[in-house]
Amino acid sequence: MHIAFYAPLKSPNHPVPSGDRQMARLLIAALQRVGHSVEIASELRSFTVSPEPEAREAITALAGQEVERLCKQWRNGRQPDLWFCYHPYYKAPDLIGPPLAAAINMAYVTAEASYSERRNASGWGPLQSLVVDAVRNAVVNICFTQRDEMGLGASIPEARLARLLPFIDVRPFDAEPATPNPLRLVTVAMMRPGDKLESYRMLAEALALIDGRSWTLTVVGDGPARDEVMALFAGFALGRVEWLGERPGDEVRDVLYQGGIYVWPGIGEAYGISYLEAQAAGLPVVAQRVAGVPEVVRDGVTGMLTLAGDAEAYAEAIAYLLENSNASAEMGRAARRFVLDERSLEVAARRLDQLLQDYAGLRT
């Protein structure tokens, strides 16, 4: 099939790295892996931090222009078989795909769409209604987590839903891990206000509880909250925490291969691609049992998941793996098998292709 791909939150070509950009690129790679041709239909970012109409006017006008442009372009050339929208939600609804699909009778698909009824009370109702309409009219809505599937199903019972488990390209992790450094903790995460900063805060609090034990922490990441993040760890001895800043993918992989335990609380994580990459490198994970994290970490098998907000339990889980190198190593081996065997790009590509073959012929 010829597929028009659109990510209203962040284009796959966006210059700032993030999990959203990475998953958009992975989905394109998965579609191409099984023979589909993919074009990025639009670079328009529909995201706003506020639901006020004044903040949305310019984006709405630009979206209308994109609909006109694409209608004209495709009527004079090859029309895609379907529109594939990745991650429409209340702050970044798809303003292009639904009217375009209706105008030219094209199948419409979403992946990782989300809806939260409680957002309506804070002024997002009109934009949420756009997400509801898109989900309702899609031939299929592909959900990465049970949480998202249940949320959409409860709010939009007529929606057609299907599961695709979170995945990564495992080819960069072909090399077998060397003997890990069991005392080296590793974190890879952006530094920005909100959930990311709160995860760093909880990590610092937990590590302070086990400051008397032997460990070092290597942090890969950067962002607007860098100074605040570093201040959270200022009380640790010099050299205890290593700050590497933002690094390209191959260097991140090397850091993971040289680590012993991957630590990231994961407050608000949709699922967390970094957890899959760490496990592919043979690292056990210590995270919280929150949001979509249990979709990518098997508690007691590939890592340890603690109760949300319990810094003491989180510290104890890290301490357990520091003190029990055999258990840590076994979890690391299980983690690597889990990702390579079950969460690879190849496995996801076959599943995604089957979903599109099953649903793409439908029209609403």
Task: Write a brief caption for the model.
This protein is α/β, with parallel strands linked by helices. The chain has helices at 19-33, 53-75, 97-104, 125-137, 146-155, 195-209, 226-232, 249-257, 273-280, 311-323, 325-342, 345-359; strands spanning 2-6, 37-40, 82-86, 107-111, 140-143, 161-163, 184-188, 216-220, 241-245, 261-263, 285-288, 303-306. It has two domains: 2-167 and 344-359, Rossmann fold, CATH 3.40.50.2000; 171-342, Rossmann fold.
List keywords for this structure.
single chain; 364 residues; alpha/beta; Rossmann fold; 2 domains; globular
CATH superfamily (homologous) name of the largest domain: Glycogen Phosphorylase B
**What's the CATH architecture name of the largest domain?**
3-Layer(aba) Sandwich
Order of helices and strands: EHEHEHEHEHEEHEHEHEHEEHHH
Which segments are poorly predicted (pLDDT under 50) over 5 or more consecutive residues? none
Q: Overall mean pLDDT score?
A: 94
For this structure, what is the CATH class of the largest domain? Alpha Beta
Radius of gyration: 21 Å
> Structural class of the helix and strand makeup?
alpha/beta
Shape: globular
Number of domains: 2
What topology, given as strand order, has the largest sheet?
A: 2-1-3-4-5-6
Could you give the distance between the termini?
19 Å
Q: How many extended strands?
A: 12
Helical proportion, percent range: 40-55%
Amount of beta strand: 5-15%
